[in-house]
Amino acid sequence: MAQILKLPPEIAGKIAAGEVIENPLSVVKELVENSLDAGAERVEVRLEEGGRRLIEVKDDGEGMAPEELSLAVERHATSKIREVEDLETVATLGFRGEALASVAEISRLSLLSTKRGNSSCYGIEVEGGHLLKGPEEQPFMRGTRLRVEDLFYNLPARRHFLRSIATEGRSVSSFLRSMALAYPTVGFSLHSDGREVFFYEPVEDPGNRFFQVYGREPWYRFFRPHQDERGNLGLEGFFLKPGLEEERRLPQVLFVNRRLVREKCSIQAVYSAYETFLKKGVKPGYVLFLSVPHSQVEVNIHPTKAEVKFRETDRIFSFLRSSLRLFLEGRAAEGISPEEASAESFTPSLSKPLSSSGSGSLGYREPSPREGEETRSPKGQGPEPSLFPSPGPLFRVIGQYRESYILIEKGGDLVVVDQHNADERVRYDRLSNGEGRSEKRSPLFPIILEVDGCEDREERLAKLEPWGWEVEAWGERSVVVKAFPVKMDPAGVGEFLREYLEGDGKGEAPREDLLKMMACKGAIKVNHPLTLQEMENLVGSLLVSSNPLFCPHGRPILFTLSEEDVRRPLQRK
Questions:
Q1: Are strands 286-291 and 252-256 parallel, antiparallel or unpaired?
Q2: pTM for the whole structure
Q3: pLDDT confidence of residue 468
Q4: Residue range 270-292: mean pLDDT, rounded
Q5: Reading across the β-sheet that carries 413-418, which strands appear in turn?
Q6: Within this chain, do residues 329 and 225 fall inside the same structural domain, yes or no?
Q7: Could you list the residue range(s) of the whole structural domain that residue 485 is in?
Q8: Both 168 and 295 in a single domain?
Q9: pLDDT tens digits for 196-223?
């Protein structure tokens, strides 16, 4: 065996940094948590190439004095603990004093900061853990700005383990959205490669922040925290109403004392509470805020502070499970939005088959954007509530056949509805009426598509602009999609553009043909599972459409079987 030697500081530093910093998300997490601990009211994050080239975090928090700057990038330098006993009651997100030192070891870092109340700003530059400049006086700016460039430039092997630019960007976006939920009074923004991904104005009501992040979806919220019998455990949050778990976006987020964590006991308690309310194999949707005395939770067990342990695990489990059961049984539900304080409670029963649905005639709600896509709305506001058409005749949804056809009972008849053709009709009518014509949604990162045989790309793309498209020619054979109509299913964007651009004479297509193509490519596909709510919404909108019998291309949408039609083959009298 080789002789045991003490590692040089530069090697030890990089090993320690590798434990804390795994990817761009790790950097953003550490820096944003520092901003929040500093009392920031606004946090701005900028990325280039998913964080590989640049990560910039700027806040308006407490700031640092000039003499603290170089100390801040040294290992185990922190303002948050002083004595061993402080580790027993950590109330801040950060506390180890490792974050900045770890980031500085594996990047080119610049730090500017102004101590709150001072009029002078100072900065330093660090490369590979070595101080290059500073502290030097800089032009005045409020708060603190950290620029992290060329992440892992001196550890190239680690770069090979990074995921794609888009994936790393989505991870950062998801984390920031989650933190925005826990800190509603703080403004958050994210820019990626010069483009604004989202911007959340500070709000006082947590419900309004929830709607900024997720939109006005059919969620239910505890408006008053639940407490245990001792009064030192608290729970509030947002929960997906049972029966809607198959929506495309399904957050499962847990905060302990506003710290985003993974904790097995809590997850098991949630699943146990939902057990009798969910279909087999379906996961619940939730955003939970659990309050625990700081002395009862251990946060110093993981290098990235992503895990915690409770001192009274059984008590936490029992409290979570019982509180959630009360909520799910309807005795604790108080509504779906701050404005609807008197919304009715619900008593779900998903152990019954889907055919147990009651009658309804709801308006069609567009599918929620998928992960990594944004719906544009005025800054500081959540998306507007969906507008429902006038109710049509009553019907009862029985279920879905082969994930392609909706079975309904209407006026004593059995009606089979082709979901694709039905959705195509609804979408065409809305486009024809100009509904949502100027509304757009943007993917997290632009979509690049290759197209063939299109000599007049620019001319054809210009014809799409009035309908909510932002598409630019890129190179000789490609286009870049920066935005598309909010009424367009993201899954149909590529198919529509290729058919539109590659087809003969499509650039001269009349308005009706263009709308038919958009409606068809944006419509729900066959072999696509729908929730009960989605089926009711679609059928309700179809029944009040201009032509419930045929799609815009003339294909039949539905056919009807009378009770006699059903009895006859079965030889019933």
A1: parallel
A2: 0.54
A3: 78
A4: 78
A5: 359-360, 395-401, 405-410, 413-418, 558-561
A6: yes
A7: 375-560
A8: no
A9: 888 898 988 887 888 788 765 555 565 4
